[in-house]
Write a structure and sequence with these properties.
Length: 309
């Protein structure tokens, strides 16, 4: 029996559960990123970071274990950070959403979108923690994107190069057109961010853009094409601005609370200035990841807003 003929609700639940288990694996990837001697295979079993106790299968069930143990290690009562279940829940939600958009007819697209969403989720958390974007996502993404485009040309439906090569934006693109659109997307995404970085560093005399961001938008462009990569950058800038303002406000609250606690005499203006300085260091990778994902999954209606030639 073909599993794709099962009821759609069943497929969605199953896909969401897969996302939950993959999310649990992503926690391992994120957590072990800074440790050179640890890989995703070694050590084989996850351990409590506090007491080094190896976790049995009961303690490894996504979400459920955390809820049952009320967020604490069963041996040493170490409070397990909330972000472990958060990553699992976020990944499950992303997979469920992708499934809802694609299953069952477009299952190859569901597979690619889900894998991309998970990679971008890892990128987001690693960039927040270490101000670095993993090379396997950025460089790996740039290498994989043309291959994936050849396998699933559907990815580039309505792409700019597809219209030139196939002569029409309707229907499934040819493999050739999809690969060309992917390569053009890599060049545009990486090129435009690199140019902004060069101009920015000339104008402000400091690095405006990390090279990791350049490679990440290159990889994203390989999946969403040249126009998609520009739209992704615009969406990312918008998200980045909101995040930036939010971060400055967070610092402002923190500073004002301290002023009240210490009964210090410090004006609001001075606090605002300090908050602006403290709040400006925010990685751009997470915003970029969100921009790429939004364009990847919602291109069909975003394109309606974009005057495609
Ligand atoms: Zn422990």
């Amino acid at each position: 029996m073909n599993p794709l003929e099962l009821p759609r609700e069943f497929l969605l639940v199953w896909w969401g559960l897969m996302g939950l288990f993959v999310g649990s694996f992503l926690n391992v990837v994120i957590h072990r990123y800074p440790y050179d001697q640890e890989t995703i295979h070694r050590p084989r079993r996850s351990r409590c970071p506090q007491c080094r106790k190896e976790l049995g299968w009961r303690e490894n069930i996504p979400l459920l274990s955390w809820l049952i143990q009320r967020g604490r290690c069963s041996a040493c009562r170490w409070p397990i950070p909330f972000r472990y279940p958060l990553v699992e829940a976020l990944n499950a939600a992303l997979w469920l959403y992708v499934g809802w958009r694609c299953l069952p007819e477009q299952w190859p697209l569901a597979l690619v979108w889900s894998l991309v969403a998970s990679s971008l989720l890892v990128t987001t958390f690693v960039d927040f923690d270490h101000l670095e974007i993993p090379d396997w996502v950025s460089i790996g993404g740039m290498l994989c994107a043309p291959v994936l485009s050849a396998l699933v040309p559907e990815l580039h439906r309505g792409g700019l190069c597809v219209q030139w090569i196939d002569g029409s934006a309707e229907g499934v693109p040819s493999r050739m057109a999809a690969v060309v659109n992917s390569l053009a997307g890599i060049a545009t995404g990486a090129g435009v961010l690199w140019a902004i970085g060069v101009l920015g560093s000339k104008a402000f005399g400091k690095d405006a853009m990390g090279f990791g961001d350049v490679k990440l938008l290159g990889a994203g462009g390989g999946l969403v094409g040249p126009i998609g990569s520009l739209v992704a950058l615009m969406v990312a800038s918008l998200i980045g601005s909101v995040m930036g303002v939010g971060n400055i406000l967070r610092w402002l609250c923190f500073l004002r609370r301290r002023v009240t606690q210490r009964r210090a005499r410090r004006g609001w203006l001075a606090s605002c200035r300090a908050a602006r300085v403290m709040g400006q260091y925010l990685p751009f990778g997470p915003a970029l990841a969100m921009g790429i994902l939004v364009v990847l999954c919602e291109w069909s209606w975003l394109a309606a807003w974009w005057p495609v030639p």
